[in-house]
Amino acid sequence: MHPDRTVTFRYRAPKAKEVSLIGEITQRKGPLPLSKDESGIWTLTTAPLKPEIWIYNFLVDGVDVLDPSNPAIKPVPPGQLISNFVEVPGDSPFDYDSQAVPHGEVRMMLYESAAMGFTRTLWVYTPPGYDTSKKRYPVLYLLHGNGEEVSGWVRNGRANVILDNLLAQGKIQPMIVVMPQGHALQAPGVEPLKRVTGETSMFSPLFPKDLLEQIIPLVEKSYRAKTSRDSRAIAGLSMGGGQALSIGLGHPELFKYVLGYSAAIGPNFLDIQEVLNRVTANPQSTNRDFGLIWISCGQQDFLYKANESLHEDLTNHGINHKYVETEGTHVWSVWRKNLSASLPLLFR
């Protein structure tokens, strides 16, 4: 990392014929070739990068590989490509940068899933002072995307840091944030990997049952959570965005706030038309039921058209909602901003 925000990458591969830099860090410019010196070290210095947490891999003779010298790794579910992070700092801290403020805690809960038949896990954020307080808190159920696993919103999105900072600035209400597993998988690291037999879709039909019938009751039994619909929100990115919209809009008796960030919806992903038909059938009832329906997407995202279409459909039917477009593709730089912008609108 250099003062002008250029970054030098090095990869030792004396016998390789071609090494390139790939991933989000190339900013859609394709593989960037590295140059090889006489000792077999391949090198590339990028153009100046805007401050951000960038994802990258090396492409070595046609094979995607990790940077063996960088321990910052993006956690992913089984079978997906593991990538590295490199962080380019700004002149002042961002919402996702840890600051000298009171910090909440992230706890891991194991539970035996009746819907899926094996041990699963939740990651749960509790706000600063939770253990010394007797207060009850509203709850946000925050769902990860298909390219993440249960820790994604913390390790990739730094949701806990964002929550700490916004709370210290007085911008949000203190809340519990529950981050469940969205895939039909057992908890990582508890025994040999198990999946639900026969499930191949991105969207497990068992996940809504797991969330509604077991996770929510478990959270409300285990934590000092408020239990009214006015105190529940559901949000998610990509796969989790589709799940959040489908479950949240389909259950106005349970959720007052429903948020989809770059939601994976439509015929090629999660078809939420049946839910939308119910939502748009009675606009007055829908507008009375929901305190916030949030739809957002990056303008260069492959899901942009689907989310824009949802916005237009809701608008045409007179459904109150918040629609946000940002620069960006299907990446964490978009979703961290979405989270920071939408959290202040919850539980007011």
Write the layout of secondary structure elements.
Blueprint: E1 8-12, E2 19-22, E3 32-33, E4 35-36, E5 41-45, E6 52-60, E7 63-65, E8 73-74, E9 83-88, E10 105-112, E11 119-126, E12 139-143, H1 152-155, H2 159-168, E13 176-180, H3 207-222, E14 232-237, H4 239-250, E15 257-261, H5 273-281, H6 283-289, E16 292-298, H7 304-316, E17 322-326, H8 332-342
Parallel strand pairs: 12-13, 12-14, 14-15, 15-16, 16-17
Antiparallel strand pairs: 1-5, 2-3, 2-6, 4-5, 6-7, 6-9, 8-9, 10-11, 11-13
Give a quick set of tags describing it.
alpha/beta, Immunoglobulin-like, Rossmann fold, 8-stranded mixed β-sheet, 6-stranded antiparallel β-sheet, 8 helices
Give me a quick take on this structure:
The strands form 3 sheets. The chain has an 8-stranded mixed sheet with strand order 10-11-13-12-14-15-16-17, with helices on both faces. Strands 2, 3, 6, 7, 8 and 9 form a 6-stranded antiparallel sheet that branches. The protein is built from 8 helices and 17 strands. By secondary structure, the protein is of the alpha/beta class.
Protein model, in words:
The protein has 348 residues and is an alpha/beta fold. It has two domains: 8-88, Immunoglobulin-like (Sandwich); 105-345, Alpha/Beta hydrolase fold, catalytic domain (Rossmann fold), CATH 3.40.50. 24% of the residues lie in helices and 25% in strands. It contains eight helices and 17 strands. The strands form three sheets. The chain has an eight-stranded mixed β-sheet with strand order 10-11-13-12-14-15-16-17, with helices on both faces. Strands 2, 3, 6, 7, 8 and 9 form a six-stranded antiparallel β-sheet that branches. Strand 6 (52-60) and strand 7 form a beta hairpin. The longest helix is centred in the middle third of the chain and has 16 residues, at 207-222. The protein is globular and about 70 Å long. The two termini are 42 Å apart. The model has no long low-confidence stretch (mean pLDDT 95).
